[in-house]
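Researcher: Let's try something more involved. This one mixes different molecule types, so please make sure each is placed in the same coordinate frame as the others.
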Amino acid sequence: SYELTQPPSVSVSPGQTARITCSGDAFPRQYVHWYQQKPAQAPVLVMYKDSERPSGIPERFSGSSSGTTVTLTISGVQAEDEGDYYCQTADSSGAEFGGGTKLTVL
Amino acid sequence: QITLKESGPTLVKPTQTLTLTCTFSGFSLSTSAVGVGWIRQPPRKALEWLAVIYWDDDKYYRPSLESRLTITKDTSKNQVVLTMTNMDPADTATYYCAHAVVLISDYYFDYWGQGTLVTVSS
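Model: All components are placed in one shared frame. Result:
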């Protein structure tokens, strides 16, 4: 198994750029996928295969990869972006989620 | 439109077996590159992947829980069932099922059920 490391929290003001990182020994061999979860709601996929955005996800969400770190970037953060964000990867041994990052919009 | 919904008991006693059913619509689990996974989330904690079943009936389990988990599918009923034996209070969590897009050596979950809270207590 492997471990995905995320910062516990990120805080930004509205309109600023939020960057949430996910580090893991399995990168860059494995893709990373990102989920947003708001209180009392199921997770929502916001990025897949490092940098592919699902339909319906705003263009301010983007993803990038460099070495053993993958980054979810939210440009021009809005209050509605507040929530928990989880990275996830998978291989033949199974899937793994990161510990989650709480994004606070000040 | 893809939808999934979890069903099962909300309360189980320690040592009992939990059986959860995921009933889905909008896709077929006989279609190539499709799967259904189970993920849980203890209160105020992170997501934890449990198991996944593929269209071709391949199954994968969380290694630390593999001895307690069984995942099966009934393609005709559009259902996936997860059983977990020897339940413990530490298994108290919201259990989600999700539609999986299976890549060559990877998968991700693009549609999720609403989740069902299972409490383990005597």
